[in-house]
Amino acid sequence: MNKFTKSIMSVGAxxxxxxxxxxxxxxxxSAGPATFAGSYTxxxxxxxxxxxxxxxxxxxVQMSGSAVGSVLRNFGLGILFxxxxxxxxxxxxxxxxxxxxxxxxxxxxxxxxxxxxxxKIRKTSM
Length: 126
Fold this sequence. Notes:
Elements: H1 3-28, H2 40-62, H3 67-90, H4 96-125
Helix pairs in contact: 1-2, 2-3, 3-4
């Protein structure tokens, strides 16, 4: 591993460590419209998803101009949209119907972005 990768991973670990108290505080509140809002594992998965999306986008910027860089950008954006979709359901910010619509739309956009990345990989490999 090079120096940059180690520093990014240490920053990600630091963010995850600092976010754990926030998760513990959020779990003490009422669950709201979503029954799984108090789940520690869900919050940890959302935090890990954000870290993975940010790292993927950073690596895509490092590799910009290449075919792999554009593929990583699409995967990073897809992961970010999917994680934001889960976050939109966990946080009680509007009515449950609107939350479901936003979740579904973000999930669809995220999956389509990952599909675009797969199609780019297929196109470059042929």
